Amino acid sequence: DLVVVGSANADLVVGVERRPGAGETVLGSDLAVHPGGKGANQAVAAARLGARTALVGRVGDDAHGRLLTASLTDAGVDTAALRVGGAPTGVALITVDPSGDNSIVVSPGANSRLTPEDVRASADLLRSAAVVSTLLEVPVETVAEVARIAAAPGGPRLVLNPSPPRELPREVLAACDPLVLNEHEARVLGATAAGRGAAEELLRLGARSVVVTLGADGAVVADASGTAHVPSVKVDAVDTTGAGDAFTAALAWRLGAGAALREAAAYAARVGAVAVTRAGAQESYPTAAEVSA
Ligand code: ADP
């Protein structure tokens, strides 16, 4: 069983010939609205694989919030701890040009109002989970409260994807088992080396275990027993949006089911590979049967 504490955003996407500069107005395609946000993405990815999954988060009392709640419910995610109100639902305003380059403005909205008290109100739910997965699209004090619950005796295992990246309080880093991040995020957290070296540096900085994802090159896993490379699966990538979220969710679910870190990362790499062969984020996530096939 997996509990995700994290963000839910509506992604508002418009295709444009050219992204606008200062003071400029351009006309674009019809608006597409997609459910997104790293927390909701992870919860949907895990539920689609077959994990019993709940999302602790916050959306606004508005149409975007209802869209997100519906997409989570359709995937089988328990939304009883998804709070409603306090600010508009988070949105990402995305313009994409014909070459695929984008410009994005994120309004965190309700995600920024998810408080440590909200987490404490769901403490029993968190303690009942094998694994709790979180990320930095909600306030760092809120993540710190999740880490405290995880670090207490009998607490769940903590998986943290530090995205968007920022320096972490020492006690948060010390609760991560694993920290799951790409090389860019690893640099912001203080790693100077790439790949294997970055994973080992973050382990020395205090994480209990580390998984560095390397896109088409797979991932590196490091813990007290050593460091190993997990290969990716060769696929024709179509759209990598949300692949990292699918990877993290799959990893967290397999760890909760008792898999070793390497084994869980190998499974997560297969899930990430399927996700990049399909367009979109949540729309691209496979079932366990599709991963086996
Ligand atoms: P992020 O999107 O967070 O930067 P990555 O790009 O490292 O994350 O992707 C996460 C995981 O998804 C990778 O570790 C890998 O397993 C899988 N993946 C991503 N891109 C590809 C690809 N082109 N081919 C195969 N697998 C991929």
From TrEMBL:
Gene Ontology CC terms, in alphabetical order: cytosol
Record: residues binding ATP: N182, T213, L214, G215, A216, D217, G218, G244, D245
Binding site for K(+): D239, T241, A275, R278, G280, S284
Keywords carried by this UniProt record: ATP-binding, Carbohydrate metabolism, Cytoplasm, Kinase, Magnesium, Metal-binding, Nucleotide-binding, Potassium, Transferase
Record's subcellular location: Cytoplasm
HAMAP family registered for this protein in UniProt: Ribokinase (MF_01987)
Catalyzed chemical reaction(s): D-ribose + ATP = D-ribose 5-phosphate + ADP + H(+)
PANTHER family hit by this protein: RIBOKINASE, SUGAR KINASE
Regulation: Activated by a monovalent cation that binds near, but not in, the active site. The most likely occupant of the site in vivo is potassium. Ion binding induces a conformational change that may alter substrate affinity.
Cofactor dependency: Mg(2+)
UniProt EC number: 2.7.1.15
Catalytic residues of the enzyme: D245
Principal cellular location given in the protein's record: cytoplasm
Domain spans labelled Carbohydrate kinase PfkB: 1-287
Domain of life: Bacteria
Name of the protein in question: Ribokinase
Any GO MF annotation of the entry: ribokinase activity
Pathway where it operates: Carbohydrate metabolism; D-ribose degradation; D-ribose 5-phosphate from beta-D-ribopyranose: step 2/2
UniProt GO BP: D-ribose catabolic process
Primary role: Catalyzes the phosphorylation of ribose at O-5 in a reaction requiring ATP and magnesium. The resulting D-ribose-5-phosphate can then be used either for sythesis of nucleotides, histidine, and tryptophan, or as a component of the pentose phosphate pathway.
Assembly notes: Homodimer.
Broadest EC class assigned to this enzyme: transferase
Organism in which the protein naturally occurs: Mangrovactinospora gilvigrisea
Pfam family, one: PfkB
Residues where substrate binds: N9, A10, D11, G37, K38, G39, A40, N41, E137, D245
Family: Belongs to the carbohydrate kinase PfkB family. Ribokinase subfamily.
